[in-house]
Amino acid sequence: MIKLDHLSICVADHERSRNWYRTHFGFKVEFEVPERGTIALQDDAGLTLFLVKDPERARHPSCGLTFQVVDVEAKHHELVAAGVQFVNAPQKLYWGYGAELADPDGYLIHLWDERSMREKGES
């Protein structure tokens, strides 16, 4: 068995990123190592996202994140109301139906849900 257990991303301000992911996506703090500028956040499925303070490397985001949500359009409305700007509102994109936004360091986040993908994402 192979299971993706965690992912590390470099961020300019680990506390700012912690608050952003907790506020907008409900990630829970698993643990923090302040002297290393590292915070471990966990999603509902048990995947840990490590936020590692490294302002120089954070200037060049090197991956994209894909989050499955219950309802992509409802999540889009919720985040817009909270002041989050989107790269793409919910629509048919090259990867299917969903929305795209960037986190505070510029990491691209794809949002999707099963129903919208099935009903609106196919050609």
Structure, described:
- The chain is of the alpha/beta class and 123 residues long.
- It folds into 2 domains: 1-60, 2,3-Dihydroxybiphenyl 1,2-Dioxygenase, domain 1; 61-123, 2,3-Dihydroxybiphenyl 1,2-Dioxygenase, domain 1, CATH 3.10.180.10.
- The strands form 2 sheets. Strands 1-4-3-2 form a 4-stranded mixed β-sheet. A 4-stranded mixed β-sheet has the order 5-8-7-6.
- The termini are far apart.
- It is built from 4 helices and 8 strands; from the N terminus they run βαβββαβαβββα.
Task: Write a concise synopsis of the structure shown.
The chain is of the alpha/beta class and 123 residues long. Helices cover 27% and strands 39% of the residues.
Task: Record keyword descriptors for this entry.
single chain, 123 residues, alpha/beta, 2,3-Dihydroxybiphenyl 1,2-Dioxygenase, domain 1, 2 domains, four-stranded mixed β-sheet, 4 helices, 27% helix
CATH superfamily of the largest domain: 2,3-Dihydroxybiphenyl 1,2-Dioxygenase, domain 1
Q: What helical percentage do the residues reach?
A: 25-40%
Which word captures the global form?
A: globular
Number of strands: 8
Q: How does CATH name the architecture of the largest domain?
A: Roll
Q: Work out the helix count.
A: 4
- Give the end-to-end Cα distance, rounded to a whole number of Å: 33 Å
The SSE string, one letter per element, is: EHEEEHEHEEEH
Structural class: alpha/beta
The major sheet is characterized as: 4 strands, mixed
Low-confidence stretches: none
Number of domains as seen in the coordinates:
2
**What value does the Rg take, in angstroms?**
15 Å
Reported by name, the CATH topology of the largest domain is 2,3-Dihydroxybiphenyl 1,2-Dioxygenase, domain 1
Beta-strand share of residues: 35-45%
Q: Strands of the largest sheet, in order across it? A: 1-4-3-2
